[in-house]
Amino acid sequence: MSSIVGIDIAKHSFDIATLQANGKYRTKSRLANEATGFQTLQQWLAKYAEPSAWIVMEATGVYHEALAEYLHQLGYRVCVMNPAQIARYAQSQLQRVKTDRVDAKLIADYGQRHLDKLRAWQPEPLAVRRLRALVRRLEDLKEIEQMELNRLEVSD
């Protein structure tokens, strides 16, 4: 069983990978980034990962948050990485292929090689998440307002 699982997450799906003792990766692709995919992941982790495994993923806007919180509630150690760190690591490994499955393997490899640098992620308090969502919404509305003002200016 593995102690590091890499997850490459996108808006609608995520891919997972873990390095096995024989040096090969065990992967699973295109799990839905919603409750059904989370449950499939939980079953996969029960088979192929240690209960104390690190789950390493990139911060991808808001797309990683629900999965990270779900895994945290299950008791896994979750590490949410800055995407720039993973991108730099990919460059250092001379990786040119960019697919979700390859990225999941790369994230797992990064976690394995930098185990001492992994930091446990903690979900933000609900009040902070709500405030952050309100600020995002306000920024969106301001952007829409500016677009409308620009249209009015052009039509005059």
Explain how this protein is built:
The chain is α/β, with parallel strands linked by helices. The chain has 2 domains: 2-122, Nucleotidyltransferase, domain 5; 124-156. It contains 5 helices and 5 strands; from the N terminus they run βββαβαβααα. The protein has helices at residues 35-48, 65-73, 83-92, 100-113, 126-155; strands at 2-9, 13-19, 25-32, 49-58, 77-81. It has a 5-stranded mixed beta sheet with strand order 3-2-1-4-5. The model has no long low-confidence stretch (mean pLDDT 91).
- How many domains make up the 3D coordinates? 2
**CATH class value of the largest domain:** Alpha Beta
Beta-strand level of the residues, as a percent range?
15-25%
Mean pLDDT: 91
CATH superfamily of the largest domain: ATPase, nucleotide binding domain
- Count all strands and give the number: 5
